[in-house]
Write a structure and sequence with these properties.
Layout (H helix, E strand, L loop, with lengths): L2 E14 L2 E7 L11 E5 L12 E5 L8 E7 L5 H8 L5 E8 L12 E6 L3 H13 L6 E7 L8 H10 L3 E7 H4 L4 H7 L7 E7 H13 L7 E6 L3
Parallel strand pairs: 7-8, 7-10, 8-9, 10-11
Antiparallel strand pairs: 1-2, 1-6, 2-5, 3-4, 3-6
Organism: Ottowia pentelensis
InterPro entries: FAD-bd_FR_type (IPR017927), FNR_nucleotide-bd (IPR039261), MRET (IPR050415), OxRdtase_FAD/NAD-bd (IPR001433), Riboflavin_synthase-like_b-brl (IPR017938)
Pfam family, one: NAD_binding_1
Amino acid sequence: MSTSYDVHLLHKKEVAEGTMEFTLEKPKGFEYRAGQFGDLVLPPSTGLTGDNAKHGFSFVSAPFEDTLRMATRMRKTSAFKNAAAQLPDGSMVQLLALWGDFTLHKNPAVPAVFVIGGIGITPVRSIIAQATHEHAPHKITLIYANRTRALAAYTDELQRLAAENKNFTFVPVYTDTQGHVGAATIRQHVADIAASRFYLAGPEGMVKAMRELVLDVGADEDNVRTEEFDGY
């Protein structure tokens, strides 16, 4: 069951080429698990109504942080995204939450492997930042694929988290120079494929391709969790 919150849009900024981040005030007492998401509802002043004024976004922010952050790849053909980008800082928006179970598993003995494309990084940044903050003992590997370095959001921060958290390994892949993530990439960076829990997030086509890939290299089908993003 979701709850509605009226919150201010504090500010917005570009966090990668074509990717915009929105920072919202965090409602008092608002609690969520890293990896979950909510719906952002734009005000009537945008001219959008009903479902056209609403879009679901994973929280980039981690639960320990004092604001809520969401990010999206911008598309000129999206009326919602264009309206959101033009909304003045300080505007009142609505947050409908809480959804999703794309969250880190409890058992620290099971390694976590994130195979992520593009905007799929949003819930993963939350999960890894929270795990680092809590000193979680989980072994975490992130394989993060983008076409170019400029298109990759949060890379600098992920590198800092990897330096801070000895249990976290960050593997950026830029497909324009390194080629796509394939079986060799998984085998090189994942010590025990059969024992690992795989997390796949991003646009639907990418997630389906990555699911086939990790199953082909020996992942346990029961150990594959996915989050497919609509509207990309």
